[in-house]
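Page 47, continued from p. 46.
Same chain as before, 659 aa.
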Amino acid sequence: MRRVVAIAVPIVSVSLLLASGALNAWAGKSVTDPIIWLPLSLACATVGSLLVLRRAGGILGPAFAFVGLQIPLGSAVQAYAYAAIAHGLSGGAWAAWFFQASIGLSLAFFLIIQLFPSGRPLSPRWRVLVWLTIATAAVSFAIPALGVVPEFPVNFPGVVHPLQLLSAGTATALDGLAGVATVVLFIACAVEIALRYRRSSGDERAQLKWFAAATVVAAIGFTIGILMIPSGPAAVFALLTPLIPVAAGIAILKYRLYDIDVVISKTVVVAMLAVFIAVVYIVIVVGIGTLAGNTTSPTLSIAATVLVAVLFQTVRVRAQRLANRLVYGERATPYEVIAGFSERVADTVSTDLVLPQMAEAAGRGVGAIEASVRVRLPGGLERTERWSSAGVDVDRAAAPWTITIGYQGEPVGDLTVTKPANDPVSPAEQSLLRDLGAQAGLALHNVRLTEELGIRLRELDEQAAALRASRERLVTARDAQRRGLQRDIHEGPERQLLDIRQRLHGVDEPEELDDLIAHANDTLDGLRDLARGIFPPLLAEQGIVAALRAHIRKVGANATVEAGGGGYFCCLQAIQNVIRHASNAASVVALSLDGDEIAFEIRDEGTGFDVATTPRGMGLQIVQDRVDALEGTLEVTSEPGRGTRIAVRLPVHELEPAR
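Result:
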């Protein structure tokens, strides 16, 4: 049933107007008078039917359908009254009576303005305006129905009003009051729709833009029509007013809802160009022609045409700029956002320029409170730049809207914009931001590469600084070892040799040499021990395992050696640490060859320590420096009461041939 009614309403509307034209022709009246209302009636009937069929807009669907039928029905009744008067048909007076009274029912259009776009008043308080409109429509219907108003004899000369329950004076006075009430209601409707726009956001704001744009265009066109066609403004009104129901239908059904900005911009440009052409024509043809006494001269028309042609492009550009300013305000147009960003970042890879420029372009392009761009960097790091609009209350912001920016299928960053709570990101703005993100993918990828290079350079600088510090510590340690060796030689073999020399001068008997020879042998053993400490011959002759076992026996360490191949001096230092800090606890020195690396570890059963809180001593630092010098890795694992484990891995390099 709903579908049948939706199809029938436009058909009935058109049929009534066509019948009105036919009756007017039969009555000798103008055929075009009812036909000019065909666009408005058909637009209202069609939009109303669509809304009813799709159950959208609430009461607005039936309201539009009512207007779409009320206009043709009134025209048909008026045409029948004309035909009845001309041909003596019955019911002519009652037809005239009904037409004059039905004009008041056109106030139903005020209800559309009050309830648009949701089908409900702005707030419960504004329901009063709805009831006042209904009451005014009822009074406006009743006054012409009960008495003769001034328009009745004008529209139907010679026809006697069938009721006349009110005197002519009373009916005229009441009709005037109804007219004043109608003006007040119209102003109240304008105030309500302005307040609704201020409080609106998102879809509702776009809907109101459509409605307001159509209303303004119709009003401007009607005003121009009155000025240029004083005898027939009704025709201009009838042809332009259909824009209002069409725009309302687009808004309520949300068909290409957010194209309104483009529509308004183009409409403003066309209107400005029309005004420009009209002004040029009036100034040259009418103004100069009046002064010259000839307004029909073709020379003036040609001059006006030439001037319009010369200035047209300049005026069009300026009109487009003004239209964009009116539509987008402080924002750039979508094209300007994309083009401007392309120009600024075409040859730029610095995060100090690209990211702030992109954030600003996105923020200004959609009128955001804040916009931010985040670049994803290696290792979970990120770089974020933000742009904020000046003088905006961030506490009244909508939820942020974010898109992921990718390059060749890989996400490289994110773009986030935050708009006011009463104006969230629209689908058109989402499309703009996606286009901006797609264009910025390469730029953010270049930024990412630059940041990665900077991170790598900083890591290399830190490694170089650590290596320099390690070398300095090794040099310091070697200096300390040399001083220690010098002290050992001075206090040991050197002093013993001086003692032997002095005692040698006092030898008188051969038997006294035996003691000196034994003393000299002890001194020689001491020198050999010192030499072995520097680089033991056993290390070169039998390898690291034998050298380690000899050193363990010498120092009396409680340690065993497993397998073979490793860093001798690192092991020595680790064993020394076990003796000093672990009370010579049982320990194991394990050495192995793992692929292209030499791995060794020293495990002890000492008291252990907390690695996180205990600073490294000189012994561990020396081991670390030696490992760093050989481009290896050192791992220290220990817990209080659980012993200590020192693991070292050193890469095996092929010896370079001597040159």
